[in-house]
């Protein structure tokens, strides 16, 4: 059956309202010297020590540190923390889901994001911000034509557009720093896909390119570190397939320290991230806590251990 586009009523971002604004964002972390020494040598405190030590050892050995995440990390105001870690060379690659394209771009372009879903669903305006789908879907279409993946496409488009707040955009800053940031989408899961500007072929091609780029990072993770924060389904499943490809080619994850950070324990994150890494020779940990606390905490501990100022 021939597909038909639906004519949707959109509205300007300025009329939509947003729950997250620039003034809510966290600043870059500062070193938390001596914090680990004040924790007991028991249970999750020792797991936190192991994760910090693993990331520090990976970077001192020149091994990659891959940070995978859900879009909630951006909505929690943590992009400046991650950008600082990337600039310092502590995080060497990022991978995320399609919703990050929405929230990161809105913050960069308009200084606000995160609409009221409950109210928007009642009045039919959820996901109907005009500027967001026009810009991001256009950036994806143009970038994929140039041979880029989704993350690079939107990051470069934000830089080219001189986005007013590009300095707090993880997409834009990774593009500027030539740091891999891959985006992995499931069609229909993001508000971008509701609009006629969405190009399914470009979304699929760009996401597939990003998957192969992510595999390139995963294939070098032996002796490195993997941090998964707030992605309970998409990234754990994507990582599992990248692990399988890596093993198919004779690789392993010997010496890789992996940690899953989330607010609750989930099946896929525990099974596909923590346990699968152990099967392939690495070390897996699960730490539970709110992103807006755990990510700055981890960043401060890493800065202290690496002697960063």
Task: Describe the secondary-structure layout.
Layout: H1 13-16, E1 20-21, H2 43-60, E2 65-69, H3 72-75, H4 79-87, E3 93-97, H5 99-110, E4 112-113, H6 117-123, H7 130-145, H8 150-160, H9 170-177, E5 181-184, H10 200-218, E6 225-229, H11 234-248, E7 257-262, H12 267-279, E8 283-288, H13 291-305
Parallel strand pairs: 2-3, 2-6, 3-5, 6-7, 7-8
Antiparallel strand pairs: 1-4
Helix pairs in contact: 2-13, 4-9, 5-8, 7-8, 7-10, 8-9, 10-11, 11-12
Report on the structure:
The chain has 309 residues and is an alpha/beta fold. It has helices spanning 13-16, 43-60, 72-75, 79-87, 99-110, 117-123, 130-145, 150-160, 170-177, 200-218, 234-248, 267-279, 291-305, and strands at 20-21, 65-69, 93-97, 112-113, 181-184, 225-229, 257-262, 283-288. Helix 2 crosses helix 13, helix 8 (150-160) crosses helix 9 and helix 10 (200-218) packs across helix 11. The mean pLDDT is 94.
């Amino acid at each position: 059956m021939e597909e038909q586009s639906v004519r949707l009523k959109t509205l300007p971002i300025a009329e939509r309202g947003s729950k997250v604004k620039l003034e809510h964002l966290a600043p870059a972390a500062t070193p938390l010297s001596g914090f680990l020494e004040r924790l007991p040598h028991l249970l999750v405190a020792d797991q936190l020590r192991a994760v910090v030590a693993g990331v520090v050892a990976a970077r001192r050995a020149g091994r990659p540190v891959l940070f995978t995440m859900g879009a909630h990390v951006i909505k929690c105001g943590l992009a400046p923390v991650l950008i600082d870690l990337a600039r310092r060379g502590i995080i060497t690659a990022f991978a995320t889901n399609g919703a990050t394209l929405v929230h990161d771009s809105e913050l960069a372009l308009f200084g606000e994001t995160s609409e009221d879903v409950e109210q928007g669903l009642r009045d039919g305006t959820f996901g109907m911000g005009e500027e967001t789908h026009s810009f991001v879907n256009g950036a994806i279409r143009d970038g994929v034509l140039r041979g880029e993946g989704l993350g690079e496409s939107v990051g470069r488009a934000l830089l080219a557009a001189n986005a007013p707040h590009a300095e707090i955009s993880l997409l834009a800053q990774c593009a500027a720093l030539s740091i891999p940031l891959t985006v992995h989408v499931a069609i229909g899961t993001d508000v971008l896909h509701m609009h006629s500007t969405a190009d399914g072929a470009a979304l699929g091609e760009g996401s597939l390119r990003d998957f192969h780029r992510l595999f390139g990072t995963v294939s070098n993770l032996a002796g490195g570190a993997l941090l998964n924060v707030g992605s309970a389904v998409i990234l754990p499943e994507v990582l599992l397939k990248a692990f399988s490809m890596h093993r198919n080619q004779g690789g392993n994850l010997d010496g890789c320290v992996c940690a899953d950070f989330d607010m609750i324990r989930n099946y896929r994150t525990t099974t596909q991230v923590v346990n699968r890494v152990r099967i392939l020779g690495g070390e897996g940990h699960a730490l539970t806590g709110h992103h807006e606390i755990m990510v700055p905490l981890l960043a401060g501990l890493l800065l202290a251990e690496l002697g960063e100022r």
